[in-house]
Amino acid sequence: MGEAEEPVPESGAVFTFGKSKFAENIPSKFWFKNDKPLYISCGDEHTAIVTGNGKLYMFGSNNWGQLGLGTKNTINKPTCVKALKPEKVKLAACGRNHTLVYTERGHVYAAGGNSEGQLGLGDTEERSTFHLISFFTNQYKIKQLAAGSYTSAALTEDGHLFVWGDNSEGQIGLAGEASVCVPCQVDVGKPVSWVSCGYYHSALVTRDGELYTFGEPENGKLGLSPEQLKNSRVPQLVPGILERVNKVACGGGHTVALTETDVYTFGLGQYGQLGHGTFIFETSVPKAVEHLKRHKICNIACGENHTAVIADNGLMFTFGDGRHGKLGLGEENFTNQFIPTLCSNFLKFAVYLVACGGCHMLVFATPRPKGSEEIHEDLRENCLAATISKLGGDSLVTNTLQRTFSARMRRREREKSPEQFCRMVRTLPPLGEGSLKPSLRAASNTVPLSLLTTNHPDVTEVNTNKVIESTVDCKTEDRKQEKNKPEESTTEEDSDKESDDRNLGNTTDVLNMTHMMRLNPSDQSLKLSPVQKQKSVVHSFSQASEDIFTSNNDKISKKSILTSVYHTAGTLEMHLESHSASTEVNDNIAIDLIWYRIDPHI
Q1: Which of 368, 504, 538, 597 has the greatest number of CB atoms lying within 10 Å of its CB?
Q2: Is the pLDDT of residue 490 over 60?
């Protein structure tokens, strides 16, 4: 075990968030001695890690034997699967309650739940150890494995796709079959390059960049036209993406597609997992995520109700259901995120791998070289662009903000490290002692983050509080016998599926107005001043809005005002935004932005 203050080695560490079963579900990290992860997969509440030395580590819930360790005991730390060590594991995929593995010898193994034949062994009996799927033996070289709720898929290097398991919704694309217990080929007339299994739907990408979806048609997660949905039990070409698709990821009720230039999402979005903003709860047409357009995204991952993406510069953004802290935005931040949110805890790291499960997320990252100017500049541009967009992109406001903030930010940048720079983008004081810093929003042309302030108190260094660090040695695991007490099924207890009501999360927290910013039209300067706490938050906001309408009624009679509540890391921002891009803000109009915070102690 590593000491509590031991720094992350240059080879990197695995970070855990949410109900991972590791370290009592506290945000934590661990690393391997003389080894590092090459592949990570998350199931509902279990995890598989494949390392460079060909070892398979498993941990998490194990009610169906999905860890393949010979028992059904929950395992709370990464444990090497000794039975597969001689074969050297190359790939692994975790479904809801089963696991698939591919080895260098060309063997495919399966363990765990098997009620719908998802193990591919020709029957429906569950297994607590990994069993060989004889169909693939010495026949195919596997490029990718995928697993859903009760489904499995294997993609060969020559583009053949094999599927098996539950087909009650058509999620394995075999039209008339209810379920199959052995691998069967799905043919779309051209080679396949990528596959993903969601909870009750699936998607594939062909080598020429076409996206096909199939399975449960509800909530628009297939991205198909009404006419196409009549044949949703077989793969259908998604018409809404004109550019070449490289990868696809399926969640519980949504789908994410990655192209060379954009990230497209569609389906269910009531938790924010689509990343399109607060009021986009569902879309059946693939829509590019505006807030990620400035970044070159290279990897995507979906959990049941949350999404994570990695940029080519190693930054990671998450959005969606924040319960259990699985978005990686801070120990006290369990709020839903409706637009991509930069994980500021990883500013000192370069993120390489991310995997999302039903209730948790795992990240593999390595320390950045000190003084990374690339991240410095990226953060500065993020903050400035988002600040400008907050005021609707008006040319007067844009020029004013650039003159007011750019020079000042550049001066401070020269003297501050990335974690110190992060202090500048805080919009509110800390919520309390020991709380983590709020995360940063991705730049957007439509939905902003809070403006910068200059009088905030210092915050702690960018890292995860109460982090439990450890090193995992497979040799040590071989000598030690796990002593885990049997655990009853906890898949319904405090899980992300525990509530059927799909609201946005009611809160009884009191909102407190803290600051007001006003644009002076005479000298085009910005002034930030504290505001007295009001007895009624609703009254405060209503009064401020009424003042604008009263003093400028003749100037903004054509301006449509939208009041939006954005869930952020520990904050709620209320702002006024124009519906019409053609409506211009008159020079005389004072623009009031009212900032709020949630105090969890009230």
Answers
A1: 597
A2: no
DSSP SS3 for 320: strand
pLDDT digits (tens, 9 = 90+) for 45-77: 999 999 999 999 999 999 999 999 999 999 999
Parallel, antiparallel or unpaired: strands 469-472 and 28-32: parallel
DSSP 8-state code for residue 547: H
Size of the chain, expressed as the number of residues it contains: 602
The domain total for the chain is: 1
Q: Which residues contact 363 (CB under 8 A, 6 or more apart)?
A: 14, 15, 17, 308, 316, 328, 346, 351, 353, 354
DSSP 8-state symbol, 412 = H
Tokens of 464: 């995860």
DSSP lists the bridge partners of residue 576 as: 563
- Report how far residue 59's alpha carbon sits from residue 74's, in angstroms, rounded to the nearest whole number: 7
Residue of 35, 1, 13, 29 lying closest to 465 (CA atoms): 29
Expressed as residue numbers, the domain containing 106 is 36-187
Q: How far apart are CA 316 and CA 341, in angstroms?
A: 8
Indicate the Cα dihedral angle 64, 69, 70, 73, nearest 10°: -60
Please list, in sequence order, all residues whose beta carbon lies within 8 angstroms of the beta carbon of residue 431, skipping any fewer than 6 positions away. Answer: 332, 570, 597, 598, 599, 600
* pLDDT score of 180 more than 50: yes
Q: For residue 244, give both structure tokens.
A: 């070449």
Residue 564 and residue 440: Cα distance in Å, rounded?
A: 18
Run of H or E including 397: helix 395-401
The structure tokens listed for 490 are: 């906890």
358-386 residue pLDDT tens: 999 999 999 998 766 556 555 555 544 44
Under DSSP, the state recorded for 410 is: H
| Sheet hosting strand 254-259, strand order edge to edge | 245-250, 254-259, 263-268, 282-288
Nearest 10 degrees: CA dihedral of 410, 439, 39, 149?
Answer: -150
CATH number of the structural domain spanning residue 156: 2.130.10.30
Q: What is the pLDDT of residue 100?
A: 98
SS3 337: strand
* Rounded-to-integer distance, Cα 100 and Cα 81, Å: 13
Q: How far apart are CA 69 and CA 99, in angstroms?
A: 11
pLDDT, one tens digit per residue, over 84-119 is 999 999 999 999 999 999 999 999 999 999 999 999
Residue 591 resides in a domain: no
| CA–CA distance, 133 with 123 (Å, rounded to integer) | 11
Rg (CA), the chain: 25
Amino acid in the structure at residue 450: S
Q: What average pLDDT does this structure show over 119-145?
A: 95
Is 29 contained in some domain?
Answer: no
Rounded to 5 degrees, φ, ψ at 329 are: -100, 5
Walk across the sheet containing 469-472 and list its strands: 349-356, 360-367, 13-18, 28-32, 469-472
Q: What is the largest CA-CA distance in the chain?
A: 80
Q: For 207, left (φ over 0), alpha (ψ -120 to 50), or beta? A: alpha
Residue 118 lies in a domain: yes
Q: How far is CA 104 from CA 54, 95, 157, in A?
A: 8, 21, 14
Question: 497-504 long-range CB contacts below 8 Å, 24 or more apart?
Answer: 497/304, 497/358, 502/270, 503/270, 504/270, 504/271, 504/336, 504/567
